[in-house]
Design a protein that fits this description.
The protein is mainly alpha-helical and about 80 residues long. The chain has 3 helices and no strands. It is about 80% helix and about 0% strand.
Length: about 80
């Protein structure tokens, strides 16, 4: 139980931040206009990831899935920022 709680808390935070950063990066030039709504959306999204961590069968699976999601979103954001 504690492993799922920690997975949701520790991996949900960067996952929520990375998803919102990816959203702001993908939006056209109006991305600056969505900065405040994205910041407001951050906490409910992080809370959803914390609650969603309890849907996994084990803490290990929660860590693996949420860790993989973090790596995938970070890689997508990194690839979008490459020049060219």
């Amino acid at each position: 139980m504690i492993a799922r709680c920690l997975a949701g808390t520790l991996l949900g935070f960067p996952l929520a931040a990375l998803l919102l950063a990816l959203l702001l990066h993908v939006l056209p030039n109006h991305g600056d206009a969505f900065l405040i709504p994205a910041l407001i959306l951050f906490f409910p999204l992080w809370t959803a990831f914390m609650a969603g961590a309890y849907m996994f069968r084990s803490g290990l699976r929660a860590w693996l899935v949420m860790g993989t999601a973090n790596v995938a979103v970070f890689a997508a954001l990194w690839l979008l920022r490459l020049p060219g």
